[in-house]
Amino acid sequence: MFSSNLFVVSNSFKSLISRTSARSISLFSSPGFKLSKSDIKQLTTTQLLVKLGYIRQPHAGITQWLPLGLKTLRNIEGLIRKKLDDAGVIEVSLSSLSHSVLWQKTNRWVNDELYKLNEDYCLAATAEEDITALVKEYAQSYKNLPLQVYQINRKYRDEKRARGGLLRGREFIMKDAYSFDVNKDEALKSFKKFNEIYLSIFKSLRIPFLKANADAGSIGGDLSYEWHFLSDKGEDTLFICDNCGTAGNVEKVRPYVDLNAQSAAKAQMTYFLTTGGSLVVFYYPSDRKLNIKLFESLNLVHLNSKFRDQKKIVEAFQQKQQASGGWTNVIMVYDVGCGQNTIYPKLAVRADPKFTTVFKSLDITDVKEDDLCPACNGKGHLHSKKGIEVGHTFYLGKKYSVPLDAKFSDKNGKMRYYDMGCYGIGVSRLLGSIAEVLRDDKGLKWPAIIAPFHVSIIQVGKVVTG
C-alpha cells in the first residue's frame, strides 16, 4: 500500500523524478501537508482528495484532475486496458456527441439524465446506440464475429443529486465494452469471458469485492451482475447466502417462499395511481418494505410512480370518483406474505366489487435479514452487507440490434440480428471508491498496482551540498 498524505521531493533526487513532475506535485499538493490526524478524521474522502492535491471540484459533479490524481487515474486505466488487450478486446474511441436519431430508435431519447444540446444532439451518457451503429457498418458477416470492443472516455449524465464526490458525478470517466455474437449461446460465452476479466481486474486491486445478481435497469437485458467493493460506507444493500454463497442486490434477490409458513399477523398499505387514474392499493407484511420495481416488472398495470404522496393520491382519486359519478377502478394487490388471518388497514376510499380488480400472492417486497435462500431451497439464510458499485455487466440479447436494424449475414446468407452484451466500469468512480475503502487516520492508501508512486521520499532537516 502507498500512503500519500506526505510527499516531498528533495532537489537531491532529481534523477528519480523529473523536474517538471516534482514541481507539479509540489505546487498542487502543498496544502495537504498541513493536515493533522484529527483534520483527516473529520474530512470526507472527497475533501481529502482535494486537500491532498488529487482533484479539484469547482462545482458539484464536476472534477478537475491534478497531477497526483491524474497519475493514479492513468494507472487504473492502464490496469484495465492491459487486462482487456490481453484478452483480445479491441480498443476504439467514439465521440462524446451522439445524435438523437439513434436514441429515438431505441426509445431512450426521452430521458431526464441526458444532457441535450438541442433537438439533434446529446452528450453521451453511454454508447450502446453508437457502438451498434458502428459495428453494423463494419461487421456484416458471421466471419467478423465474435467482435468485442471497448473504450475509456468521458461520459455525461444530468445527475440531479450530484454528491459523494467521484461516486456520483455529472461528468465521469468510464470504461464501456460491448460484445457482438451470432447467437445467444455465443453471446453468453462472451458474457462469461468479460465477467472473468472483471474478476481478474478486481482481484488485482486486493480489495474485498462481490459479484451480485442485479436488476438491468434502463440498460436492459435479462441477465446482469453488479460488482461491488464491500464497505460499511456503501449505499447499496447486498444479500449473501451463508450456505451456497449466492449474492444479489436487494432489488434482485428474492427470499425462499415457504408455502406452509404462517401468514403475516398485520399488513400495511401503500397507494399508487396508474397512468390512467385508477387507484392501486398494495397490501404487504408490516415488517417488510414494498419493492415497487418488482410489481412493475410483472407488467400488470402502468403506475404513475413519480406521484407518491399518499394524501394527495387519495385526494386525486376521490376527485376523480366525484367527477365520474361515484365509482372508479380500484386495483388491490396482495403480497404472498399476506393471508386470510392477516389484519388489514382500512381503505381510505370507496371500492365497489364491480370496479375492483384483485391480484393475490404476488412477490412485491424486499428481502430482509435472515430470510431463507431460494438458490439452495431454503437451506441457507440471507445476510446483508453494504457495497459500493464499481462495475456492471449485462447480457443484452437483441435489445439494441433489432430497433437499430443491426444485422449480419450468417453461413447460409440469411440476415440475422447481433446478440449483444455490454460491460461497464466507472473508472473515476473506482478511484473514489478505493480511496473511500482504504483511507485511514494517516490519509489515503492505494494498492501498489495503481499507486501514483511506490516510494515516498521525505526530506528531514537541511540538505548538505558540496
TrEMBL record:
Entries under Gene3D superfamilies matching the protein: Bira Bifunctional Protein, Domain 2
GO biological process, one term: prolyl-tRNA aminoacylation
Domain Aminoacyl-transfer RNA synthetases class-II family profile: 69-447
Keywords: Aminoacyl-tRNA synthetase, ATP-binding, Ligase, Nucleotide-binding, Protein biosynthesis
Domain of life: Eukaryota
Reaction catalyzed: tRNA(Pro) + L-proline + ATP = L-prolyl-tRNA(Pro) + AMP + diphosphate
Pfam family, one: tRNA-synt_2b
Entry EC number(s): 6.1.1.15
Keyword Oxidoreductase part of the UniProt annotation: no
Annotated GO CC locations: mitochondrion
GO MF: ATP binding; proline-tRNA ligase activity
The UniProt record lists the keyword Transmembrane helix: no
Sections of the chain in a coiled coil: none
Similarity-based family: Belongs to the class-II aminoacyl-tRNA synthetase family.
Protein name: proline--tRNA ligase
Species assigned in the record: Dekkera bruxellensis (Brettanomyces custersii)
